[in-house]
Write a structure and sequence with these properties.
The structure holds two protein chains of two kinds. By secondary structure, chain A is α+β, with helices and mostly antiparallel strands. Chain A is built from eight helices and 17 strands. Helices cover 25% and strands 27% of the residues of chain A. Chain A has a five-stranded mixed barrel. A five-stranded mixed barrel of chain A has the order 12-13-14-17-16. Helix content of chain B is 72%, strand content 0%. At the A-B interface, helix 1, helix 3, helix 4 and strand 6 of A face helix 2, helix 3, helix 4, helix 5 and helix 6 of B.
Chain lengths: 432, 179
């Protein structure tokens, strides 16, 4: 076989691909016509077997199957518990939280006494007594939640009465003004001395430490971040900790985990900040399929929407269309308002600042190119490859010796000839 | 730009990100490879998916590819296709339902076209395994000569010769009734 024939075949296959006719191709190589023609006719036949790309839904379906299979292969010890959750006030804002509220069903019915009442210390003492006496973590946690609800209720009543007492309660931050915030339905006035946690945003659960003002508000000494929501893709499920979008999330026996969550699912997590600043995951809920009953706010609106929150993530751009990009495992909507920084192309590593709606849909606010992207230039080529693992037979190259697979494009080499040995059937295509 | 050691260890750890990345990168060409040989979307989807499942299982057991992930996937896909045809030959009734033409076109024309394609597929099935593979990679998965060489673990020049022989043999098997 001559190199020239192979070259001609290669050129013509490429030409046929672009719509050049077979005859036109053959006319370029009149001296090779007798050998080239049958091969090109066969190439045309082979080409007719080619199909379009797999439709996107086929790819996604397969991906899901493969990820599910991975989840089955993974040793799993899923912890589950059902119990009331603390910080119900925070939860009541969101759909997710509504679920928790139902499961907890705790209302502080017996909050007759208030701070400042003669009997109030008795009530607190009784609480802490039952807390320490309560058997098991579950009951303790329920009681804590119950007591937390009572504190809020007490604060409410104190404000109504205008009784100037110290208060400490947990609620949901629903409005943030420059001088006053609203926590649940309580007006919390900030002073220059108020200690604020800079991470706090609307929609988060906060703990307020302050004093009731007779004017009907609470003047805050300190507002601490207490609970917040995180959403992301579950990457790893283990007994002690899950990985969600690269963050390790600690699981403890009281974490409420919706059943059936698998790796690859979008989840919403409620996280509580403990006194020592550690995080406790209160609940993990699946986002997919969860419908937001109200909220149809357009993604482009710059309104603060408590049903949405912002995230940051980094990942590889895997596909790009005008309306959305695939980054990591996530489809991210692109709007005219999306700020693009740098000349981003497929395969680039980017950092995305995005807004996530409660239904899990993600809209990019800003996407920036990360330089120093560690898409490592493939430098390897360690040793010549086809070893027993590569599932194909290795005859066919017992000739010229060197087998370092690829060395850029074929250099114009001198005289090595593929001695034309019509290899006969080797039914075996390697194994593994 | 084929990174041969493509996150094999992450895949072995069943890291979903690595799995998704590898899947989305290789599934399309495996699917087209299977389509080239089976002509059936559902079967091709199942086969390409199955290849990834086998990969994860193999890696978990400490087996699987050491160097060329892509080559391994194509090797496995080839096997699965062969298995598929073996089963078909044992239960030939199913063969009839493998390639159903879609609606909304002249059924006679479609049937004729489908018959042509089946004839070509039949002719390719008479080639040697390597010959079939080189054609499926080049014409089905639409790989370059160089990529084909990498996937098959051969030199580009060997692929050129193999490809020529494959086409010549295919032409022979197609006989006079070239579509």
């Amino acid at each position: 076989m001559s190199d020239r024939l192979f070259e001609a075949l290669e050129v013509c296959i490429g030409a046929l691909e672009t719509g050049v006719s077979l005859e036109a191709c053959l006319s370029l190589y009149p001296e090779l016509k007798s050998e080239l023609q049958p091969a090109l006719e066969a190439a045309q036949a082979a080409r007719s077997l080619a199909t379009d790309q797999a439709p996107p839904d086929v790819l996604l379906r397969s991906r899901k199957r493969v990820l599910e299979h991975a989840a089955e292969l993974r040793p799993k010890k899923r912890l589950r518990s059902r119990l009331g959750l603390p910080t119900l006030a925070y939860a009541s804002l969101t759909v997710a939280a509504a679920l928790l509220l139902a499961s907890a069903g705790l209302i502080a019915a017996s909050a007759q006494t208030l701070p400042g009442d003669a009997l109030y210390p008795v009530k607190r003492a009784a609480e802490s007594l039952s807390l320490s006496a309560a058997p098991g973590q579950n009951l303790k946690q329920s009681l804590k939640a119950n007591y937390s609800e009572r504190r809020l209720e007490e604060a409410r009543n104190l404000v109504k009465l205008g009784r100037p007492e110290e208060v400490r309660f947990v609620g949901t931050l629903t409005q943030m003004g420059p001088e006053a915030w609203v926590v649940d339905d309580l007006r919390v006035v900030l002073t220059p001395e108020t200690i604020l946690d800079p991470q706090i945003e609307t929609g988060m659960g906060v703990e307020v430490l302050g004093r009731v003002n007779p004017g009907g508000w609470i003047s805050a000494d300190e507002v601490r971040l207490k609970t917040f929501r995180l959403s992301g893709t579950v990457e790893k499920i283990e007994a002690e900790a899950w990985t969600v979008d690269g963050n390790e999330i600690n699981i403890h026996p009281l974490t409420l985990i919706e059943s059936g969550i698998r790796v690859g699912d979008q989840v919403l997590m409620l996280v509580q900040v403990e006194a020592d600043d550690s995080w406790t995951t209160l609940a993990i809920l699946r986002l997919e399929g969860m419908k937001v009953p109200t909220s149809t706010s357009t993604p482009a609106s710059t309104e603060e929407d408590p049903d949405e929150f912002e995230i940051e993530l980094t990942g590889i751009v895997e596909s790009m269309t005008a309306a959305s990009w695939q980054i990591g495992n996530r489809t991210i909507a692109i709007t005219p308002g999306t700020e693009l920084e740098g000349d981003i192309a497929l395969g680039d590593r980017v950092k995305v600042h995005a807004r996530v709606a409660l239904d899990g849909s993600t809209t990019a606010l800003k996407i920036e190119l990360l330089e120093g992207d560690e898409t490592d230039e493939v430098d390897e080529e360690t040793g010549d490859e086809p070893e027993e693992e590569t599932p194909e037979p290795t005859e066919e190259r017992e000739d010229g010796g060197e087998d370092s697979g690829d060395d850029g494009d074929e250099p114009p080499e001198e005289g090595e000839e593929e001695e034309e040995k019509e290899e006969l059937e080797e039914e075996e295509e390697g194994d593994h | 730009v084929v990174d041969e050691t493509f996150e094999l260890s992450s895949l072995g750890d069943l890291d979903p990100k690595a799995i998704t990345k590898a899947h989305d990168r290789y599934f399309p060409e495996l699917y087209r490879y299977a389509m080239f040989r089976t002509g059936n979307g559902q079967i091709s989807e199942d086969i390409a998916s199955e290849a990834f499942k086998r990969l994860l299982e193999a890696l978990q057991k400490g087996a699987g590819p050491r160097t060329s992930l892509r080559g391994w996937l194509f090797g496995t896909t080839s096997h699965l296709i062969d298995d598929h045809f073996r089963k078909l030959y044992k239960h030939p009734t199913e063969a009839l339902s493998t390639a159903l033409p879609s609606q909304n076109a002249d059924p006679f024309l479609l049937a004729e076209k489908e018959a042509d394609l089946q004839a070509i597929r039949l002719a390719t099935s008479k080639l040697t395994a390597d010959q079939r593979k080189v054609l499926a990679l080049r014409f089905g998965s639409q790989m370059s000569l160089k990529e084909t060489a990498e996937v098959m673990g051969k030199l580009p020049n060997a692929i050129k010769a193999l490809q020529f022989r494959a086409l010549r043999a295919l032409r022979r098997h197609l006989g006079d009734d070239m579509p």
